[in-house]
Every structure is written in C-alpha cells, then in structure tokens.
Amino acid sequence: MRPDDAAVIRSLPLFADAREETFAELVRTAFLQRFPPGVTLINENDEADFLHVVVEGQVELFATSGERETTMSIVEPVGTFILAAVLNARIYLQSARTLQKSQVLMIPAEKVRDALGTDEAFTRAVVTELARGYRRAVKEVKGQKLRTGAERLANWLLQRAEAERADRITLPFEKRVLSSLLGMTPENLSRAFAVLKTHGVTSRGAVITLADRATLAAFARPDPLIDGPE
Amino acid sequence: MRPDDAAVIRSLPLFADAREETFAELVRTAFLQRFPPGVTLINENDEADFLHVVVEGQVELFATSGERETTMSIVEPVGTFILAAVLNARIYLQSARTLQKSQVLMIPAEKVRDALGTDEAFTRAVVTELARGYRRAVKEVKGQKLRTGAERLANWLLQRAEAERADRITLPFEKRVLSSLLGMTPENLSRAFAVLKTHGVTSRGAVITLADRATLAAFARPDPLIDGPE
DNA sequence: CGTGGCAATTGACATTTGTCAATCCGCCGG
DNA sequence: CCGGCGGATTGACAAATGTCAATTGCCACG
C-alpha cells in the first residue's frame, strides 16, 4: 500500500481518532487487493472475515433472495462496508461485487474486534459509525415504504445535485444499477424519468439536467429525515 | 421503580455486562413513567434526550413523511428503542406512541453517552446492540425490496409461529398496525390473508391458524438472511 | 338487551409496478 | 465504415397495490 493510501484511510472517521499502534496493527495485517470490474468480493451467508475499505474504484453491495436481487448501496472511495457483520462475528447479509476496476483493503475481522478492547477512541468511532449506518438503513426503509418510485428518483437526483452543487449530474453508474438501488426495474426507471420530464428533468445518456430544483422539489417533497446527510 | 423491574432491565443484553456503578447511575437518573394507550412519547425531528426502555405494555415506532405514515416496529417488554439517535446526539428519525397502557423507563441520553467512556463492558454491549439493530434494519430493507405483500405476511406468520412454537397465533395488535408494519394498506392485508387461505392459513378475528407450515413455507420462501433472529 | 362506534372486510376502480418483446442507440472492434 | 453487442427505451399487457365507498361484525357502553 502506498503511504498516501494509508493517510487517506487514516483520515476516515472510523480511524481518525484511533491510536497510532491500533491503526498500524490494522493496516499491517491487512491485504490491499486489486480487482477488475464484475468480481464478486463477498457472498451473503459467508462468515464475516474481513472489514473492507474501498480505496479506489466502485463496489456494489447487493442482496438476493430466491431469484430476486436488489442493490443495497454503492461504496466509493474512501468508504468501508460490512462493519456490523464483522463486529458481531456474524455472516454477511449482503454480497459485494466490483463495478469498476477497484482496490480494496481487507482488514481481518479478528483484528478489528481486538482493537475494540484496546483502543477506546477507536471503539467510540465504531459506535458512531454503526449508529450512522443504522440510521441510514432506517432512512432507507422509510424511503421504500413512504415513497413511490418516481419520488425516490426525484429525491436521489436532488441529493446528487446538492452534493455536487450543480444542476447537471452525470450518473456514476449504469441506469440499471440505479434502478435496482432505488427499488425498481430498469423499465420503471425509464418511466420515472419520463414523469420527471414534466418537472424539469431532462436526460441524455448518463447526463441529467435539472431545469429548476424548486419545481422538482415540489414534486419530490424531500425530507431531511429521509434524505439528509449522515 | 420496583426492584424486580430493575432486575429485568439489568438482564437485558444492553445492561447485563455493565458494571454495577454504571447501571446504578443510569437507573438512578432515569424516570419510570406510566402512559395510557395512544400517547405519543416522542416525535421525529425532536432532539434525542432519552433512551427508552419499555417495561410494560406496547410501544409502536412509526415514521411519517408528508401525509403518509408507516409503522417501523413494535417494542414490547423488555426492549429499548432509539439507541442510535441517543448515541450520536442526533434527532429522532422515528416517532413513538403507546398502543397499550405502558410503563417506560427514560434514561437521560447524556448519562448513556457518559457511560460509554467509563464502562468498557457496557460499551461493548452497545456496539453489539447497535450492530444488531443495524442488521435488523438491513433485513427490513431486503424484505421490502425483494418480497410482495403476501410474502411478507406469510413470513411474518411463520416467524411468529416459530417463536411461539404453535400453529395457532393470536395477533398481538390490531390488523391495521400489522398492515402498516408490513408496508401495506389494511385492505391489502385482508387480500393477503385471502391469498394465504389457499396455503392453509385461516383466520377468525385476531386468531390465525396455520394448517401446514411446510405448505405455507413453500409459498413464503423464508430466508434466514431476512427472517432469521438477531 | 339494544345500539353506536370502530375495526375489518369486500367490491369496484385507479394507479403503480412488473414482465415480456421489440426496437433504438451508442460505443467499440474489425 | 460497418456490424454487432449490450444497455436503454418503448409499447402492450399482467400483476400488485392503493383508494374510495359500502357493508359487515364485534365489542363496549348505556
């Protein structure tokens, strides 16, 4: 691993306050692996052996049941995933695959659990991070149960525009991934975009333009308790 | 608070391993309150001031957005709620109301956060509990995105039957609450029950009978990564 | 022993979402 | 420059879910 990779990981909320020895030990025992796109990194139902940190590229977390599959989230640099499973020494609830050429740091689960006992600041950061993930998942449930597909898309677009401080958005992944992330079929996503045309959303390929955020917001009815950061 | 109430709370996974002083301090500063049915205990968007423990009765956690509302979970004795908001000193993402006459222990959020710094075993329990809640929320998302309404009902019934080790279930709350918990309208729940009649589910009022769990399971396709305990 | 009130159910219909098939379109390799 | 591949879109239809209104049924209260 390059030194500045380590520095970037060190700056993650999860590691920023950890003691030097704790961080050094975690990184020392970790593997930094490179993967081409489309590789399955972990499978639901496997034992949680590693905490994963996406250093470069893009990783899709997804879940299956029977024949059905849905995208749970997209992890980009620098983000971690599967923390909860690692901590409780449980099996993964989600699978992961690379969407792009990626570098992933894999920290042995055992080391993470060990660090809990020895580094108070790290433990505190884990608590914060878990609580954050928990709350994100609750928001996800709220969005799924309280909104229609078109509304979820509209709010997703508004969030993106907000984050990028721009009215022109370039989708960071394929539309079929977005459709699954939002909990619908690709066909339905196309129709949702058609609906949003009447609210000032135009799209050409992966480039989406919002003519008037206020108009779109009137339709989307964004809610900080669903869409807000954190 | 009666001494055996304290003992029951003490036996919760969240408190079982805490030091005696930690637990004593938390309980000393807590309020035990009684509420009639239908009382709103907390409101989304309020600051998280207390960790709540349901000692008696039944509490519904629900969320709203605009005019819409959905039930997020039902908390029965002895269970806690709103841990994540308390820990991150954030606002509540969910509201809570009593469904029955209830007793609720309210522990000041500040004390809970203080205890994190001073009691390692308690902190460890908090991590475990948070991870558990996180994983439960992820399972909820999976259920919502991967299953139809009738399937969610079928799996809910199977889970109940499993937990009670009986083929006869008495609904612990009104059907409209169940419908909202499962993410559908009351009308749709009725229809879902009608669908399950063909799979051996008969209902008279709040009493549901499963003629053959295997048959029902063939329809429900239960999945430990969605329905399993934890 | 009625009877009012509320939850639950049912029917009719609208909306949303999914499925299947055909077509379009952009990009890349020959 | 031409195919050809895969993702995206569109149309037609089916299934799932929501909405509205009417009815049923149960229970508590007078």
From TrEMBL, chains A, B:
NCBIfam families xref list: PRK09392.1
Protein name from the UniProt record: CRP/FNR family transcriptional activator FtrB
Record domain Cyclic nucleotide-binding: where: 14-133
SMART domains associated with the record: cNMP, HTH_CRP
Keyword Transferase listed: no
GO molecular function: DNA binding; DNA-binding transcription factor activity
Top-level division of the source organism's lineage: Bacteria
Record has Secreted as a keyword: no
Domain HTH crp-type: 147-214
GO cellular component: cytosol
Keywords: DNA-binding, Transcription, Transcription regulation
InterPro entries the UniProt entry points to: cNMP-bd_dom, cNMP-bd_dom_sf, Env_Response_Regulators, HTH_CRP, RmlC-like_jellyroll, WH-like_DNA-bd_sf, WH_DNA-bd_sf
Phylogenetic placement of the source organism: Bacteria, Pseudomonadati, Pseudomonadota, Alphaproteobacteria, Hyphomicrobiales
